[in-house]
Amino acid sequence: MKKQLLDLQEYLAQNNLDIAYISNPSDINYFTGFYSDPVERILALLVFPDKDPFLFAPQLEVEAAKDAGWDKDVFGYLDHEKPFELMAGHIKAVAGTPAKWGIEKDDLPVQKLEAIKSQFPDAQFPTNLSRYMENAKLIKTTAEINELKAAGAEADYAFEVGFNAIKEGRTEQEVVAEIEYAMMRKGVMHMSFDTIVQAGANAANPHGGPEKNPIEKDELVLFDLGTVHNGYISDSSRTVAFGKPDAKSLDIYKVDLEAQYAAMDAAKPGITAAELDKVARDIITKAGYGEYFIHRLGHGMGTSEHEFPSIMEGNDMVLKPGMCFSIEPGIYIPNVAGVRIEDCVYITEDGCEPFTHTSKELKYID
Ligand code: MN
């Protein structure tokens, strides 16, 4: 059985839990190698301290789970059947009536929890396994890092396509379409999030999106994109110059790049997440743009872009080899321009290595 599952079984035994109900799709992938977002249907991995785990899935997913390499039981249900009644039958056959449940409280909707309770009226839910998962996924194995490298190489290709797609009169949305079409032609069927292309002042709104307006000459153009490779993601940002942007735009690029390089240099075992955030933030603040760097330096990533460690003020977690996270300082001046330069990295014995290798020297596109 996979080490990840053995570790969870040991955790259950040590914490007197009778069953783990894993429902977060990226966590199911982490344990089984099978990724699927079941939307309103039920997909769950049931793990016990001393019995074999099994998957419970919509019938239409059963073969896909096996094809993905899951070699334990997978029980399916049809749409017209009562999933929680069926699942309870399988649980009872394996483990009787579990009393103490570990569930992912960050992910399990109240309605599904109530359905579990209706099958197991005496069940208790003392443990939030979402916290366990954050720590379990914190240090990546060599195999995981190889998947992340492959996802990073796909992101590098996406940048190449995107930079070539910038043309006068083309809109941000059209450039996004070019990128995603080219990725699909290459067999990359999932981006890790909606691809972002934002030009000029639109890039100053980091939670905005690509718009229908044509990209103007003499502006910066910000790209933020990533792909999913065997369930592992990439996430990277580059900002390029279309024509000749004004001096202010070029200055914020220069400062942001300096901050990104400095943080890449400082990322190594022993530094804390908060200290690393400060390395980049100090450079941006000294240059007078501190108020325009309005998010943390980075986020952990792996099977999702929302993992530990969070690289921000107040997080005293010490960085260790195998931790993976983004380094993405950004400067956003409302109504003027926005810059973000981002690599996801993994911590090595004495530094860090990026998963993406697209040049960060300012690229001029005519
Ligand atoms: Mn990111």
Automatic annotation (TrEMBL):
<keyword id="KW-0224">Dipeptidase</keyword>
<comment type="similarity">
    <text>Belongs to the peptidase M24B family.</text>
</comment>
<dbReference type="InterPro" id="IPR029149">
    <property type="entry name" value="Creatin/AminoP/Spt16_N"/>
</dbReference>
<keyword id="KW-0645">Protease</keyword>
<keyword id="KW-0464">Manganese</keyword>
<dbReference type="Pfam" id="PF00557">
    <property type="entry name" value="Peptidase_M24"/>
</dbReference>
<dbReference type="InterPro" id="IPR001714">
    <property type="entry name" value="Pept_M24_MAP"/>
</dbReference>
<dbReference type="InterPro" id="IPR050659">
    <property type="entry name" value="Peptidase_M24B"/>
</dbReference>
<dbReference type="GO" id="GO:0102009">
    <property type="term" value="F:proline dipeptidase activity"/>
</dbReference>
<feature type="domain" description="Creatinase N-terminal">
    <location>
        <begin position="7"/>
        <end position="125"/>
    </location>
</feature>
<protein>
    <submittedName>
        <fullName>Xaa-Pro dipeptidase</fullName>
        <ecNumber>3.4.13.9</ecNumber>
    </submittedName>
</protein>
<dbReference type="InterPro" id="IPR000994">
    <property type="entry name" value="Pept_M24"/>
</dbReference>
<dbReference type="GO" id="GO:0008235">
    <property type="term" value="F:metalloexopeptidase activity"/>
</dbReference>
<dbReference type="InterPro" id="IPR036005">
    <property type="entry name" value="Creatinase/aminopeptidase-like"/>
</dbReference>
<dbReference type="InterPro" id="IPR000587">
    <property type="entry name" value="Creatinase_N"/>
</dbReference>
<feature type="domain" description="Peptidase M24">
    <location>
        <begin position="147"/>
        <end position="349"/>
    </location>
</feature>
<dbReference type="Pfam" id="PF01321">
    <property type="entry name" value="Creatinase_N"/>
</dbReference>
<dbReference type="GO" id="GO:0004177">
    <property type="term" value="F:aminopeptidase activity"/>
</dbReference>
<keyword id="KW-0378">Hydrolase</keyword>
